[in-house]
Design goal:
This protein is an alpha/beta fold. The protein is about 50% helix and about 10% strand. It folds into 2 domains: about 200 residues, Alpha-Beta Complex (2-enoyl-CoA Hydratase, Chain A, domain 1); about 130 residues, Alpha-Beta Complex (2-enoyl-CoA Hydratase, Chain A, domain 1). The protein has 17 helices and 10 strands.
Amino acid sequence: MNQDFPEDELLVQEYGALGVIILNRPEALNALSLDMIRAMSSALRRWEQKPAIRGVFIAGADGGRAFCAGGDVKTVYYAGLDARQGKVDFRVPALFFAEEYSLNRQIFHYSKPVIAFMNGITMGGGYGIAGNARYRIATDKTLFAMPEVGIGFFPDVGSLYHLSRCSGHFGRYLALSGERIGPGDMVRAGLAACYIEAGSREKLVKALEKAVRMHKVELAIDEALTSFALPPPEGESLPRNAERIESVFSHADIDGILEALQREGSLWAIDLFDLLCSRAPASVKVTAAHFNKALEQSFDEIIADDFVLAQHFLRRNDFYEGIRALLVDKDKTPSWSQGRFEDVTQDEIESYFEPTGHVLEDIRIFISGEGAE
């Protein structure tokens, strides 16, 4: 295997006609740093112009616990604190999201097949890499969530494009609750294309390298994946609670969802009611509004909104309080800006979707693709 320009945190390799990207930051569960984002984007741009590379395979390092646990939000947290104290401009923490979302969009629109091997923890920004790939593989070790409402943020990285297109109302359930699911639920919901055992990776890469050389490359990749795919595991949350989820999350607003959970009255409903009420009220309400918009939006429109929303969250307290409680002090007792859902007004929700200044609007236009080179 030819390794052209290795980085400590990101291994960029060429295996015949297949470009291979390995996330290699296991001590941080492969959380995406800005350097990793830039290196990945650079490799993809280079391969897009290289006829000998016919497809791209992305995975976490062998033996690690994660594909990618998300973006490096602790770094954003400290940069944001500096911005709030006037030490740096808000463009400094905003830059991480601008480049991360640009990479997400690059993967989504990539002209060559991208195959993501989601072995292990795949959450937040990790799904921004894998979920936006053309082929998404879950394994026996996959654990998925978009847990951002638990840190005073929202499901970003274009994820609502995929969650809003899940079967039934399962996507709204995942977006608002931040609940974790396994590979079987991912395949059933449409968040993964197939289920393949983790131990098959080496043989799979060899098969994919042959497949991307074929004239009908997408058909050949489909056949290669099918030859390794197994029926997904049974007994996960979607089949057990499908009817409850469909009933409760058919409501488009959090008030309707909470009322439905109270009527449902099961232990599952009580636990979920308590979980939703523990989340940041503004995060949940903004996420609900974002999800409802996403049902009718293109990917580019959704990720453009993601960037505008991210800038508003960077300027408000809940994002910092959530990260402090979960990742910095780790006391797991965040004190949200608002204590109740009813404290978050409709005007406040709508204000999150408004660009606040020419810098935000310029980057919003770039990410949406309008006027991009």
